[in-house]
Amino acid sequence: MSKVFQATASAPVNIACIKYWGKRDTKLILPTNSSLSVTLSQDHLRSTTTSRADPSFAEDTLWLNGKLDEIKPGGRLATCISEMKRLRKELEDANPNAEKFSHWRVHICSHNNFPTAAGLASSASGFAALVYSLAKLYQLPASPKELSLIARQGSGSACRSLLGGFVAWREGAAADGSDSFAEQIASEADWPAMHALVCVVSDDKKDTSSTAGMQRTVETSALFSQRLTVVPERMRAITKAIQNRDFDTFAAITMKDSNQFHAVALDTDPPIFYMNDVSRAIITVVTEYNRVALEKCGKRKAAYTFDAGPNAVIYAPRENMKEIIELIVSYFPQESFNDPFQLFKSAAVQGRRMDGFNEGVSKRFGIGAVKTLIHTCVGDGPRVRGDEASLLGHDGLPKSLA
Ligand SMILES: Nc1ncnc2c1ncn2[C@@H]1O[C@H](COP(=O)(O)OP(=O)(O)OP(=O)(O)O)[C@@H](O)[C@H]1O
Ligand SMILES: C[C@@](O)(CCOP(=O)(O)OP(=O)(O)O)CC(=O)O
Predict the structure, then answer these.
(1) Can you tell me whether residue 303 is helix, strand or coil?
(2) Ligand 2 nearest atom to the CA of residue 119, by list position
(3) Ligand positioned closest to the Cα atom of 132
(4) Which residue out of 40, 157, 266 has the highest number of ligand 2 atoms within 8 Å of its CB and is therefore the one to mutate?
(5) What per-residue confidence (pLDDT) applies to 42?
(6) How many CA atoms lie within 13 A of 354 on its CB side?
(7) Can you tell me which atom of ligand 1 is nearest the CA of 76?
(8) I need a surface site. Which of 55, 361, 389, 397 has the fewest CB within 10 A?
């Protein structure tokens, strides 16, 4: 039997605390500001990708969640694939003993275990898994930082999913993008108590993609240039807060930055509304929770943040998560709750509010307003998966189609 050139990898989602919004170069995907995110655990949210090279393949082909996805010539997917082939070719040229297969076509099959294109950062985990699986297929010695330069050209936020823990994407200054990469500022082991509750308000495909939305902001928003003047200090302050495990400061900055990003979206012409009434009610509930916490112990206990969609991510230290879930359930009832950290005795979590909480801050919504709650925590960077995880069958086609 001939040798199979194949690798499978999974990569995590990341959710930014300092948002990337705006490009100075749309082809190379170079941002107008640095950003910073928390990598979420792949035990709960992940993209898994298998890449295979074979001389019999006629075309580079990608299947995403069981369906053929077009690889447009010159498009983002094509750029990432050709950059990875280029690195393999360099390795082959430098090492006469290396097997020569950089010119073979590849079949790539990927699966997201959560809704795609719904503002849950699927492009981030997706492009990170793609680049990482190709790096393993091509046995490249590339570091996460080097791979982040390539994933960035698939989707900007994807560069941060090449690393675990707490990750900064440096905006850089070079015209060729060589200094616009991701780097870890603290590992998941440095602050393992950082947990996150994803409140899925909608898993529909969003109306205005991040790509189109941010470009419109750059072109039309007067507030946008003001935002660029405050981000550098926020980056410094939140990095220090993370390194000191100072949740109160982390929370204050994260919420301010989310609010400013949505203000800038609203200031875009025509305006962009990513949040809806449910999103705003979540903000109100978290704000009241923090008011009580500040009154009782002088520190915030939770931080909301919203990407380009209505879904909330609530960051909080692990010890607060039980009461936060009970609080959220009291306003946004759930039929059942998947409880990976075993905080509750039953899947039917009862809503509850802490003493001193002003329950009138929001109305109580019906079942379905928040569709699902996903409890997760900070996690590691991409993982290599064994052959048993392969998404491609012996014939080089998706197993799911067999
Ligand atoms: N597993 C994957 N492998 C390769 N590409 C993927 C994968 N998952 C998503 N993508 C790409 O990302 C696109 C979705 O990105 P989009 O930015 O619209 O949504 P999102 O990432 O869920 O939202 P956001 O980045 O605003 O949080 C898909 O249409 C597809 O092109
Ligand atoms: C609001 C954000 O989630 C925007 C993410 O934008 P994308 O990385 O999806 O955009 P492109 O580079 O055009 O693919 C903020 C963030 O993740 O930093």
Answers:
(1) strand
(2) 3
(3) 1
(4) 157
(5) 97
(6) 19
(7) 31
(8) 55
Q: For tokens 């010119």, what's the residue? A: 103
Q: What is the pLDDT of residues 66-105, one digit of tens each?
A: 999 999 999 999 999 999 999 999 999 999 999 999 999 9
d(CA 198, CA 376): 8
Structure token pair of residue 112? 């997201």
Q: Does 35 contact ligand 2 (Cβ within 6 A)?
A: yes
Q: Tokens at residue 95, please?
A: 């090492």
Residue type, 299: K
Share of residues in the chain with pLDDT > 70 (%): 99
Name the residue of 18, 20, 123 to mutate for ligand 2: max ligand atoms within 8 A of Cβ.
20
Residue appearing with tokens 């020569």: 100
Indicate whether residue 128 lines ligand 1 (CB < 6 A): no
Q: Beta partners for 30?
A: 25
Q: Which amino acid is at 183?
A: E
pLDDT in tens, 159-195: 999 999 999 999 999 999 999 999 999 999 999 999 9
Query: Cα separation of 362 and 85, whole Å?
Result: 53
Distance 129 CA to ligand 2 centre (A): 16
Instruction: Indicate which atom in ligand 1 lies nearest the CA of residue 118.
Output: 22
Mean pLDDT across the chain: 96
Report which secondary-structure segment, H or E, holds 54. strand 46-54
For the chain, count helices (H), then strands (E). 8, 16
Q: Is 200 helix (H, G, I), strand (E, B) or coil?
A: strand
The full set of domains in the chain, from first to last, is 5-188+385-401 (3.30.230.10), 194-377 (3.30.70.890)
